[in-house]
Amino acid sequence: MLLKIRNILISLVLLAVTYQAHAEDGHQTATENKSFNLKEMLFSHVLDAYEWHVFTMPDGKHISIPLLVIVKSSEKGWFIFSSSRLAHGHAYEGFSISHNEKYRGKVVETTANGEEIRPLDLSFTKNAAAILLSCILLVVIFLRLASGYRKAPLKSRRGFAGVLEMLIMSIYDDVIKPCAGPNYRKFSPYLLTAFFFVFLNNLFGLIPVFPGAANVTGNLSVTMVLALLTFILTNVYGNREYWKEVFWPDVPVWLKVPLPIMPFVEILGLFTKPFALMVRLFANMLSGHFIVLVFMGLIFIFAELFGQAVAGGVSIVSVAFSGFILLLDVLISFIQAYVFTMLSAVFIGLGQVEHHPEKAH
Amino acid sequence: MELFTPEVGLICWMLVPFLIVFFVLGKFAWPVIIKGVSERANFIDQSIQSAKDANEQLASIKALGETMLTEARNEQLRILNDANQARNQLLDEAKKQAKQEAEKILSAAQLTIQKEKEDISRQVRSEIAVISIGIAEKIIRNRLDASEQEELVNRLVEEANASGKN
Questions:
Q1: Chain B residue numbers touching A79 (CB-CB < 8 A)
Q2: Given B3, B9, B29, which is nearest A146 (Cβ)?
Q3: ipTM of the assembly?
Q4: Could you tell me the end-to-end alpha-carbon distance of chain B, in angstroms, rounded to an integer?
Q5: Min Cα–Cα distance to chain B from A268, Å
Q6: What does the alpha-carbon distance between residue A349 and residue B11 come to, in Å, rounded to a whole number?
Q7: Cα distance between residue B22 and residue B28, in whole Å
């Protein structure tokens, strides 16, 4: 136990020294060009990008995987090219990555009169690549598991397959079955896929190096698609009782007739539910990333303000805290995926509400 | 603000792969896995039930065997008792028969002995008569006529016989 604690302390100190060295670099460049910009650092980590940054060489050179830029200019039509052509502020066919406040970090087209406009941008970005990667992983993992069940259905699963089975069955039995109404079987494929998609991407987002580090579930576009799918399933499969409760809810008549107050609230509720679903997953995952990054950023801020000695001390605390937060984020990854699935199941289940003849008042 | 503006491109890149994954897994993975797990659960339940049944059967068979054993033991005891009784009875009967036979033999022997005794006594008497006649003849030959005397002696012997019989 003591040995373990000592080892942890030693590694923390080593890490701190490394960060401090890094901070010195930062300090030097700061004095040369500009001071450390926490905001920029944060956003460059959590936002989407046109290339997938792998690591930075000791000499400051960035190693990145270039991805596809797919844009449609309203004048010149479709363009598909590697994002490496836009690296370091280069322009290609009139396209470049904007540095202006309006479209910062996005591909823009510069028109003849020097104006920046956004083309239709369907680029295969870092998040898109991360999504594709996780989708391939999901398909491979679960098709393999399923083929195992096809071959030997009565064999007990151990190891990874056992964990997967435990997760699948706990979601299926404890979330989908009680929440998604009597037709839960029909919705379980979507809910299970959503759970594992969110869970896998949450976990991948925590890995600080290349195949991870993409902030997929902390991206509003992604959570919007998921929430939209839940919204569609809820309302497309919603039964008569559900729509009756929306337009003619079980409340005193004066709340419905001259002014449709309750129907208005209910219709608003149709949209607030998926909106909440979208925002809460996004905000939770984003905040997890932010906290870790802010702890890291503190080292550089302290280095700038008080010099290396203080930064060294701070870095120990920072590394320890961000390690702790990362561990907490592992827990949060599961909880958020679970909550997303549960809320989706509950919303879908509300659309499957059964007619309750006469409630005892 | 970029953080809060959804991107059309990413929405497409999210929607299409996710839907593909959803359809593929929804068709080929989830139903198979859930069916497999529930099948296994049923199998386990059945196995436990049949094991329970088998145990119960075994217990009942064991009980049956025990009752059969005790019955057999009782039967054995009963048979042994019976045999003992039969033997004793036989023995008793044999003893009784032997006793009767012995008595019979004894009485027959007594009868014979009685008869013999009578025969012997009669013989002895006639012997004695002959001898005494001889003696008397010798004594009174000289004085008496033999025929007169023999008549007298025979009459005396008859008398003696009659009295001896009485």
A1: none
A2: B29
A3: 0.84
A4: 170
A5: 21
A6: 26
A7: 10
